[in-house]
Amino acid sequence: MNPPALWPDFDDEWIVYEDDDLIAVDKPAGMPSQAAEVGRSDDLVTRLSRHLLARGKGEPYLGVHQRLDKDTSGVVVMTKRREANVALAAQFEGRTVEKEYRAAVTGWPPGKRTVTLRDVLAPGDGGRVRVARSGQKGAQSAVTHALEVARSGARAVVALTLETGRTHQARVQLAHAKAPIAGDRLYGGAPAPRLLLHASGVTLLHPRTRKKLEIRAPVPGDFDPWLQHGDLGARVYDDPVALARTVARAVLCRHALGHAGDGPLATTAFRLVNEGGDALPGLAMDVYGDWLVVHLYADDTGLWDDVARRDRVLDELASLGAKGVYLKVRPKQANTLVDTRREDLAPVGPVRGEAAPSEIEILEGGIPYGVRLGDGLSTGLFLDQRANRRRVSEASAGKRVLNLFAYTCAFSVAAARGGAARTVSVDAAAVALARGRENFARAGIALDAAHAFVAEDVFAWLGRARKRSDRFDLVILDPPSYSSTKKRRFVAKTDYMGLAAEAMALVDAGGVLVACANHRGIAWGKFRRLLHEAARAAGREVIQAKDLPPAFDFPAPLGAESHLKIVWVRLG
User: Fold this and answer.
1) Number of domains within the chain
2) Is residue 47 within 8 Å of 35, Cβ to Cβ?
3) Which long-range contacts link 170-174 to residues 24+ away (Cβ below 8 Å)?
4) Residues 396 and 464 in one domain
5) What is the Cα–Cα distance from 343 to 338, expressed in whole angstroms?
6) What whole-number distance in Å separates Cα of residue 486 and Cα of residue 514?
7) Is residue 367 part of a domain?
8) Are residues 210 and 244 in the same domain?
9) Same domain, yes or no, for 338 and 428?
10) 303: domain CATH number?
11) Structural domain contains residue 374
């Protein structure tokens, strides 16, 4: 893959105004206004700074006076000279800057009329803002004027003028008025390809000339199709323009990962499209170095039975520039599969482009792992656990680490690279553990007595380990949703609690169980409850149970939970 081509730092078309004092950008949806986390450099200010520096005019200066939510598009104004800061800051702080937005909503009362929303807002939970209770600490007044400008049935587009600039102001006020913005994950918006909120313009006095300056950004192309037809859902695959736009937005959101292939913490494997979380239901796509792996999820509608639709989607994805594209067709009832290497489900060769070597090496946080793109439905590395492998690595120094259902031992490798004193990897598949040993060697970890590989049924091993009074400081429990051995059948939805209790018995006092459930039928609330039930069954005290968020390249669909649930359980 070619990061400069696929993930350019900046597009000159995003600049909607510039002079010696100011620069204004039409920020795309999905680009954070400021750095989302340490080490990420995909935010607007950093990318614009690099772009201006590349013009060859020396180190640029950017004064930030305004921000937009990551998923909101539209006008952001910054100063290019320090001398302009005071005058512009005074306008923003004095509320004399006119800020105009467009929002696509459902539930707006019919009739083109102006409504003024006056609420007092305060911080809520989960990153939300709420309409404040009387006398609530931290409450601030917020005023928004709204005017309907277009309508189609129950859907409408409203023009908003914000007198104040509170966090999530328009989003929470419209939701409180029972007209949430489409695509709003936090405040209950209707299904949409993105958050349909756009900062369409600002009007201010130029900080040097003091003349009135109007800066506008056109309403993006997502708004009108949604207004006319609602959310496309799977129909996006039959609309070439919408498909290209939706794939491009998903790619833009992975800018930080696309540029993470260099340096000591390089990462060259990640998810590029995550089903409904990227408004592409039934479709996922992973990057493995120079190759792509596409996953098509079967459903009751026969979404992927149409060969022409499938080919159209594969052609669009192949145009991103990978050397080759591999395909995995995932049946609705994957637990019933006996042979996961069937050619109709997982072709050995690529369906577009050239073949990869039988095994390629990718990097994750600087750690090498071997993957096989044409070896059945699995490649040898579960990319949705990337953030958790990093957490395990950071917590492993000097610790005894047990990895249950270890597969190719990626968690064990991460723990060993983090300085674990001992690792034990248990899995029923000796072939998978052999690949685990190769991953240890690939990562430069000596295969000595400190690292054990046990090819055995996990349940049987747990019983014997408990009798031996084995203890570990960190236990990773990441079972498949379904598994069968000669002696036992495991179904996560019904059997996880008992398994967790067995694992907890091996956690030393003050140690941690990293409990993972990759099952869409197990909700977060249920998962937390069964872990507390498991602790009671094991006679253990839960000191802390902390939910771990999914990696940002695995967004959940609107209104749904992440398929992967992880809880960091510290036991007394």
Assistant:
1) 3
2) no
3) 170/101, 170/103, 170/144, 170/197, 171/69, 171/129, 171/197, 172/119, 172/121, 172/128, 172/129, 172/130, 172/131, 173/117, 173/119, 173/121, 173/131, 173/142, 173/144, 174/103, 174/105, 174/117, 174/146
4) yes
5) 13
6) 27
7) no
8) no
9) no
10) 3.30.750.80
11) no
Each residue's pLDDT tens digit in the chain (572 positions)?
788 889 999 999 999 999 999 999 999 999 999 876 666 789 999 999 999 999 887 789 999 999 999 999 999 999 999 999 999 999 999 999 999 999 999 999 987 778 999 999 998 888 899 998 767 787 899 999 999 999 999 999 999 999 998 999 999 999 999 999 999 999 999 999 999 999 999 999 999 999 999 999 999 999 999 999 999 999 999 999 999 999 999 999 999 999 999 888 999 999 999 999 999 999 999 999 999 999 999 888 899 999 999 999 999 999 999 999 999 999 876 555 556 778 889 999 999 999 999 999 999 999 999 999 999 999 999 999 999 999 999 999 999 999 999 999 999 999 999 999 999 999 999 999 999 999 999 999 999 999 999 999 999 999 999 999 999 999 999 998 877 766 777 777 788 999 999 999 999 999 999 999 988 788 999 999 999 999 999 999 999 999 999 899 999 999 888 989 999 999 99
Q: How many CB atoms lie within 10 A of CB 469?
A: 8
- Enumerate the H helices of 85-205 as residue ranges: 85-93, 169-176
Burial of 487 from C-beta contacts in 10 A (0-12 / 13-18 / 19+)? exposed
**CATH code where residue 452 lies:** 3.40.50.150
161 plus 246 within the same structural domain: no
SS3 content of the chain, % helix, strand, coil (to 5): 30, 30, 40
Residue with tokens 């090819």, as numbered in its chain: 455
- 42, 178: one domain: yes
- Residue 504 CB burial class (10 angstroms; 0-12, 13-18, ≥19): buried
What is the CATH number for 208?
3.30.2350.10
Q: Amino acid identity of 496?
A: Y
- Does this model's pTM top 0.85? My answer is yes
Same domain, 206 and 314: no
Strands 140-152 and 155-162: antiparallel
Q: Are residues 49 and 115 in the same domain?
A: yes
- Is 263 part of any domain? yes
Q: Number of helices and strands (H, E) in the chain?
A: 14, 27
Place of tokens 């507390």: 532
Last residue of a domain, one of 291, 325, 358: 358
Residue 144's domain spans which residues?
7-231
Domain end (from 196, 215, 231):
231
Catalytic residue from among 9, 69, 71, 222: 69
State yes or no: is 286 an active-site residue.
Answer: no
Is residue 372 assigned to a domain? no
The neighbouring-strand residues paired with 141 are: 120
Give the H/E segment covering residue 199. Answer: strand 197-205
